[in-house]
Amino acid sequence: MALPQTAAGIATAIASGETSAVDICSESLRRIESVEPCIGALITVAREQALLAARRIDATPLDRRANKPLLGVPIVVKDNISTRGLRTSCGSRMLATYEPPYDATVISRLRHAGAIIIAKSNLDEFAMGSSTENSAFGPTRNPWDVSCVPGGSSGGSAAAVAAREVPLALGSDTGGSVRQPAALCGVVGLKPTYGRVSRYGLVAYASSLDQIGPMALTVHDASIAFEVIAGSDPNDLTTSAGRRWTPSPDQDITGLRIGVPIEYFSNGVDPEVSSAVRTAIDTLCRLGAVAEECSLPMTAYALSAYYVIAPAEASSNLARYDGVRYGTRPTMHGATSGLQERTRAAGFGPEVMHRIMVGTYALSAGYYEAYYRRALQVRTLIQREFDAVFERFDVLACPSSPVTAFKLGDRSHDPIKMKLADTCTIPANLAGLPALSLPCGFASGLPVGLQLIAPAFQESRIFRTALAYESASPWHTYRPRVCAE
Amino acid sequence: MIISDDDVRSIAALARIQLEDAEIPQQRRHLEALIGHLQLLHQVDVDRVPPSTHMVQEGNRLRADRPHAPLPIDRVLANAPDCSDEMFLVPRILGD
After folding, report:
1. B residues 61-80 near A, CB within 8 Å?
2. How close is the nearest chain B Cα to the Cα of A26, in Å?
3. Which chain A residue's Cα is nearest to B45?
4. Does A456 score more than 90 pLDDT?
5. Best of B5, B17, B19, B47 to mutate (most A CBs within 10 Å, chain A)
6. Quick count: other Cβ atoms within 10 Å of Cβ A141?
7. Which of A307, A341, A377 is the closest to B17 by Cβ?
8. Which of A205, A258, A383, A460 is deepest in the core (most CB within 10 A)?
9. How far apart are CA A174 and CA A212, in angstroms?
């Protein structure tokens, strides 16, 4: 009998006793063993812990398996999310052997829902990058074409789902790090509203922008994982206390007003990407939605605002890596000074050092007003522009990435070109809005992502639209032929 | 945007990062390229626009001030580069 492929199917089959958790877990481990040599999506595989958790589930009586929406589902977690006793390296030499003493809130919630943490996934070091090439553990490759990057920084999570190593993964999204790799790998990825999901236990990059989000093969699976991880948390007081989210299978988008922001289809957007996204919008209109072009002129300044705010916050957040409490410490050879400086030079890779330097510059005396304060003011204007456009539209639809997956090494020596990969995703982070990428076709054989953006705390609108599109399109059923398959 | 090697050394010192002389030109080029790009921000009229200092609109929240058990010391020290007698050890900071 074939094993179920989706998280929803797996949880249902295990809850009813139709399938064993050990069989599912073993199948996932076999798949990991088979494709990892060419994909390199994972940093640590928790084989024994995963099988132990699976055996425990199988030993649970059937009448005590209810209300576990992810029962026995193998999940890959980005390696910047703390997992107790399981290495959390952030893709950095600095934390190459670090084992957190506690679980992140999202991990506690996943475990409570029955999920099995099977592996930790590769990422750009400390989530800084758009290609998963900046990792101390080597690059990850795109399952659709192993000469290409999977996007980043959650490229390991996206590639693991796309290569069918697992049906579900967690990523984190500061400037597009869930949605851009989801688009480039042909999977679904959600960045929730800022404040919807607890950041407790997420290794901080830019605290005012970071959000943890699910990545999955189907919209339904992403919504189940989102329901599990969302909610108020006393350990993260930026989580919203009063706003609950209730999932709905509703796919009716009759009369839905879709805004199509013209700036997301202009400079630097691959015409084939643009065409695939416009065709997807036409499909949504055939399903009853009404689409109209709109304009968000402040989009032109979003990348610049982001590259002040995010590095500024990073320069503060990463000050904790000082060689005292955790992480790498170089040999001091009797020196009595320079512990912090030597530790950081030895532990951080070039991109992380570079962003810390930019952030330090932007916050330093004489430049604070010119860069940091001004970037925060521009963020206000971007937020106001979204507020105004959402008075006319229910959701916005646009590309998730201006291009499809690019070749490894193609952009790594051009910092500005690499950063342009995030132009379609950064604005939603700056405005704190929910946004989802889902597959909407192919360009030159590589996946294209449709991005849906909604007002804050309106994830239900995004899921309704995405479910409607997915049910009318075949893209989520396509799978890459990985390695020698 | 012109940034000098001394600017780079000064920023590195503030960031507590030891840079070798050979690394400075590349860091300078990176900084010049990105900070040059950031000049776009100066095209925006931000007069009387408040900075977005908070991402949450619900105001400050405080959790209940209740004592709870901290993490066990051995688990906290397990990742320390060096420790002894329930303390983190650092290299001596005073000479002989």
Report:
1. 61-64, 71-72, 75-76, 78-80
2. 31
3. A378
4. yes
5. B17
6. 24
7. A341
8. A205
9. 9
Token digits for A142? 């795109």
Strands (E), chain B: 83-84, 87-88
| Of the partner residues A303, A324, A380, the one whose CB lies closest to the CB of residue B51 | A380
| CA dist., res. A477 & res. A217, Å (int) | 8
Mean pLDDT on A20-44: 97
Between B31, B42, B95, which is nearest A357 by CB? B31
**Distance (Å, whole) CA A451 – CA A273:** 12
Read off the pLDDT of each residue in A379-406 and give the average, rounded to a whole number: 98
**Which amino acid belongs to residue A127?**
A
Asked whether the bond before A153 is cis by omega within 30 degrees of 0, the reply is yes
Catalytic annotation present for A34: no
Q: Which amino acid is at B6?
A: D
Distance CA A196, CA A189 (A): 15
Average pLDDT over residues B55-74: 86
For A75-114, give one letter per residue: b (16+ CB within 10 A) or e: bbbbbbbbbbebbbbbbbbbbbebbbbbbbbbbbbbbebb
Q: What value of ipTM does the predicted structure carry?
A: 0.95
The more confidently predicted of residues A120 and A414 is A120
Query: Is residue B96 very low, low, confident or very high in pLDDT (cuts 50, 70, 90)?
Result: low
Nearest-CA residue of chain B relative to A431? B55
Segments making up each domain of chain B, as ranges: 5-41
Q: How confident is the model at residue A484 (pLDDT cuts 50, 70, 90)?
A: low
pLDDT averaged over every residue in chain A:
95
Residue written as tokens 């001030």? B65
Q: Given its phi and psi angles, is residue A260 left (phi above 0), alpha (psi -120 to 50 degrees) or beta?
A: beta
B19 touching A, CB under 8 A? yes
Residue B1 has pLDDT above 80, yes or no: no
Active-site residue flag, A191 = no
Going by pLDDT thresholds of 50, 70 and 90, the confidence category of residue A121 is very high
Q: How many Å apart are CA A130 and CA A101, to the nearest integer?
A: 29
Residue A161 pLDDT level (bands cut at 50, 70, 90): very high
CA distance A333 to B54: 45
Residue A297: exposed, middle, or buried by beta-carbon count in 10 A (0-12, 13-18, 19+)? Answer: exposed
Determine the pLDDT at residue A250: 82
- Of A82, A153, A223, A401, which is the active-site residue? A153
HSE of A112 in the Cβ direction (CA atoms, 13 Å)?
10
* Contact assessment for residue A480 and residue A214, using Cβ atoms and an 8 Å cutoff: no
pLDDT grade for B95, boundaries at 50, 70 and 90: low
Q: Tokens 């995963």 sit at which residue?
A: A50
Q: Is this model's pTM higher than 0.80 or not?
A: yes
Which burial class, exposed, middle or buried, applies to B7 when counting CB atoms under 10 A from its CB (0-12, 13-18, 19+)? middle
* pLDDT (average), residues A347-358: 96
